[in-house]
Amino acid sequence: MKILDVDPLPAADAAGLTGHLAEGERVDAAFVSPTGSVLFTALRILVVTRENLLEEKVETASWPYREIRRFSIQDSEDGRTGLRVWLGEEPQPLHLRARPDVDLKPLQRLLAERLG
What we know:
This protein is mostly beta strands.
């Protein structure tokens, strides 16, 4: 997986990021970056990535919450927050890095609820 510098997106606007949502699948949180997006739905985590900005090939990967091995929050001195999520057999975590004004703590709570 790679590091994505993300901005939050209102969940109501997230359905337009991918055509791979199931009928009636609710998006609880969404984040976008220049080369992809991450959607946390009621059922799973969807990661939509492009190799580069001009790439027409788009990969959509999906993991049910039961595939989360662990997750961690990182706070840095410059005020940025990072969230790492280890999914399935992936050797590297999904790493979301947010600007100093973006709070990832609600996402941490969402993951804890899904794992509980």
